[in-house]
Amino acid sequence: MDTVYDVLIVGGGPAGLTAGLYAGRAMLQAAIVEARGPGGQVVLTHEIENYPGFSEPISGALLAANMVDQANRFGVDMYYSPVESLNLQGKIKEVVTEQGKFRAKTVIIATGVNPKMLGVPGEKEFIGRGVSYCATCDGAFFRDRDVAVVGGGDTAVKEALFLTRFARRVWLIHRRDSLRAEQIQQKRLLENTKITPLWNKVVAEIRGDTRVTGLRLQDVQSGEESHLAVQGVFVFVGRQPGGPLAGSGIALDEEGYIITDEDMSTNIPGVYAVGDVRRKRWRQIVTAVNDGCIAALSAAEYIEENFGKDEDDD
Amino acid sequence: MIKNVTQADFEQEVLQAEGPVLVDFWAAWCGPCRMVAPVLEEVDQELGDSLKIAKVNVDEEGELAQKYGIMSIPTLMLFKGGRVVETTVGFQPKKELIARIQPHL
Questions:
Q1: A59 to chain B: nearest residue by CA?
Q2: Residue A208's domain spans which residues?
Q3: What are the distances in angstroms from CA A207 to CA A233, A280, B2?
């Protein structure tokens, strides 16, 4: 590809799309390279209630689609291809994808996070046969069945509530004796008669024949084991940073998240990180779009300082 | 060619088809299914007539979804000679999907 983009954004979730929107409005030539489809984790969320400006809940898929349209309106190019490697040290940076090599003056990393697996026997074997990581996708297949949700954070609690629309009974399995989720969601969960929390328990094994039939649970305090008969298990036990960051020279924290300053700059000049992949305290759609805006404006300033204004005239 | 298939024409379009048929079990409310759609279009362009692609909406075709034990979408099943020869669950990048299909063409 001959084009040298002003801003190349890796990842098309809310953070990346917002960076694209602001870059486009700054009259910069911007592109987003997304490994799958646009929208990131938002697409997996049934309803979003905490994104300001929408007084009624909005579906995650619709919010994501709107963000894509908005970025497109300001001329952002979209490419769908997994990124293989990042060469970021030069003045012109390279992003190598399956489709070919992209070059750019600045790169904004917005690769988000991927769900963690439980890592117990039976998990991989039963993916698509009772093990799921997406309640909005698969909840409807468990009408009048008993299911388990594993985890105690925002996602686990929200998805347990969503699953009560279909399932007869929802067990919430959590390794601690209290939840980390938003208070309003915790209250809804504890008041829901279809949901039974099982505290201080971990899943030791997912059992089944042709599909899931149950779980072997272990009590973290007593070590005692028990069997729970369920036909489905939905796993929401946290996330880990996504994207091919290792070897890129970008400074990461001990968990693999990208370290930035307040301008979203990484340790490499002209390289920024935004959204969930960045080391930060709160990972929300609102904080992701905040990052995207700041990074695009920082990149615009960097380009002006390091490449001058008239270089874009072809 | 990508075609919507129902219970009524599944036998003819998929099971009785001469060549391999990739069946995409999907639904409108499934985010990752939307992500799969453009990938299938690219696969369709790349593989041309050697592969037929059929879409089954699990909301409307519950019986088909049940018959093939669908519990997670998107599920892609490759049929050949009326038999399932390959199954993938969840989003698949184009390269990996083609690698799974190629041996059966």
A1: B29
A2: 117-235
A3: 11, 37, 37
- A–B interface: beta-carbon pairs under 8 A: 83
Tell me which H or E stretch contains A289: helix A285-307
A141-195 residue pLDDT tens: 999 999 999 999 999 999 999 999 999 999 999 999 999 999 999 999 999 999 9
Residue that is written with structure tokens 């490499």 in the block: A268
Number of structural domains (chain A) is 2
Within-domain flag for A314: no
B94 touches chain A (CB under 8 A): yes
The complex's ipTM works out to 0.83
Give me Rg for the CA atoms of chain A: 21
The CATH number assigned to the domain holding A157 equals 3.50.50.60
**Tens of pLDDT, residues A80-99:** 888 999 999 999 999 999 88
Asked whether residue A39 is assigned to any structural domain, the reply reads yes
> Catalytic: which of A137, A177, A253, A263?
A137
Residues A216, A214: Cα–Cα separation, whole Å: 7
B6, B22, B24 from B82: Cα distances, Å: 16, 12, 15
Reduced to 3 states (helix: H, G, I; strand: E, B; else coil), residue A276 is helix
Together in a domain, A110 and A121: no
For residues A235 and A156, give the distance between their C-alpha atoms in angstroms, rounded to a whole number: 8
Asked whether residue A80 falls in the same domain as residue A8, the answer is yes
On whether any CB of chain B is under 8 Å from the CB of A301, the answer is no
Q: Is residue A312 part of a domain?
A: no
**B61, B11 Cβ separation under 8 angstroms:** no
Is B93 close to A35, i.e. CB distance below 8 A?
Answer: yes
Kindly list the residues from chain B whose CB atom is less than 8 angstroms away from the CB atom of residue A60. Answer: 31
Residues in chain A closer than 8 A to B45 (CB atoms): none
Containing A307, the helix (H) or strand (E) segment is helix A285-307
A window 84-103, beta carbon within 8 A of B: 98
Domain final residue, candidates A211, A235, A259: A235
Residues of A in contact with B65 (CB under 8 A): 141
Distance from CA of B74 to the nearest CA of A (A): 8
Quote the tokens at residue A39.
């929208």
Q: Pick the residue from chain B with its C-alpha nearest to A98.
A: B95
Integer Cα distance of A149 and A234 in angstroms: 5
Report the DSSP beta bridge partners of residue A228: A215
